[in-house]
Design brief:
Keywords: Electron transport, Heme, Iron, Membrane, Metal-binding, Photosynthesis, Signal, Thylakoid, Transmembrane, Transmembrane helix, Transport. There is one protein chain. By secondary structure, this protein is of the alpha+beta class. The radius of gyration is 30 Å and the shape is elongated. The protein has a six-stranded mixed beta sheet, with no helix packed on it. The chain has three domains: 200 residues, Cytochrome f large domain (Immunoglobulin-like), CATH 2.60.40.830; 63 residues, OB fold (Dihydrolipoamide Acetyltransferase, E2P), CATH 2.40.50; 36 residues. Strand 8 and strand 9 form a beta hairpin. The chain contains five helices and 16 strands.
Length: 327
């Protein structure tokens, strides 16, 4: 079943539609990984979205058991930029985010949220990563123009009800993505990549699919993978010492070489169309014991009262000493 899901996801990413925004699907990680955070600490979205871009997060410094609070994830990028879609056309970027909470924390229900929190999350559909990991939250894809910031409503656990939870400082891991990735779920390259020369040599010809695969000579058509059988796909032929080498370039990336140009193996033959990327941040979150807060307030009040009494006592002594001097 997992293989079928991955195949369907790859198909959706590659085919796309003409004017729809480029997709950012954190759900691909959900289908391929039991846990989206690797042992190294890296969130797996970075495995497909290779470009690094900033992510911002606002997390409360401390919360108490049962408190409903919000985590705000900022996904900044230049709204004037567009990137290539799967069919080679240009479109806006979608965004997505992953929040890895400490175990015991979970997504707040609508009934648990305040009216303000309901309004902040009204246009977002947030889901737990899985039944086994309700502390990991996913959202996306969402239109990036309207969702530069995403709000996650969260409920803090109560150690009295869950013995596995303790009053202590925890770590929250947050990943934010914008735009399509460079690696498809099946491991193949998307068209949101730089394509490079397969060998050292000279570019001798460029064959282009104008409408369908029949536009190419049979020997070149056989080289085109199914996901690249689209108008605008090009097959570049290079004359090398080892014979003729070919490179299939899907629609989207723009060629930066011309027929007759000499290239070295690994030289870029297209521009880099990617304008998106993934960012990850970490924040501390303290689960505070309200009893400790009460005792702290009582201690501070006692200190303040003691200081006040000392000041009054000092004034009293000064007055007595002044009276004795006058007497």
């Amino acid at each position: 079943m997992k293989r079928i899901y991955l195949a369907l996801c790859a198909l959706l990413l590659l085919l796309g539609t003409g004017s729809r925004p480029a997709a950012a699907y954190p759900y691909y990680a959900q289908m391929a990984y039991d846990n989206p955070r690797e042992a190294t600490g890296k969130i797996v979205c970075a495995n497909c979205h290779l470009n690094a871009m900033p992510a911002r997060a606002e997390v409360p410094q401390a919360v108490t058991p049962g408190q409903v609070f919000t985590i705000k994830v900022g996904i900044p990028y230049d709204l004037s930029k567009q990137q290539v879609l799967a069919d080679g056309s240009k479109g806006g970027l979608n965004v997505g985010a992953v929040v890895v909470l400490p175990e015991g924390f979970r997504l707040a229900t609508e009934e648990e949220m305040t009216e303000e929190q309901r309004q902040e999350t009204a246009e977002t559909y947030i889901t737990p990563y899985s039944d086994e990991k309700p502390n990991i939250l996913l959202v996306g894809p969402l239109p990036g123009e309207q969702h530069q910031e995403i709000v996650f409503p969260v409920v803090a656990p109560d150690p009295k009800e869950d013995p596995s939870v303790a009053f202590m400082k925890y770590r929250v891991y947050i990943g934010a993505n914008r735009g399509r990735g460079q690696i498809n779920p099946d491991g193949s390259l998307s068209n949101n990549n730089v394509f490079r020369a397969p060998a050292t040599g000279r570019l001798t010809s460029i064959a282009t699919i104008e409408s369908d695969l029949s536009d190419l000579p049979p020997e070149l058509a056989a080289l085109v993978p199914p996901e690249y059988e689209l108008p605008g796909t090009r097959v570049l032929s290079f004359e090398t010492e080892g014979g003729l080498k070919h490179l299939v370039v899907p629609p989207g990336p723009e060629l930066v070489v011309n027929i007759g140009d000499s290239v070295q193996e690994g030289d870029p033959v297209t521009n880099n169309p990617n304008v998106g990327g993934f960012g990850q941040v970490e924040r501390d979150l303290v689960l505070q014991n309200p009893e400790r807060v009460k005792w702290l307030v009582a201690f501070l009040a006692a200190v303040a009262i003691t200081q006040l009494l000392l000041v009054l006592k000092k004034k009293q002594v000064e007055l007595i000493q002044a009276a004795e001097l006058l007497g």
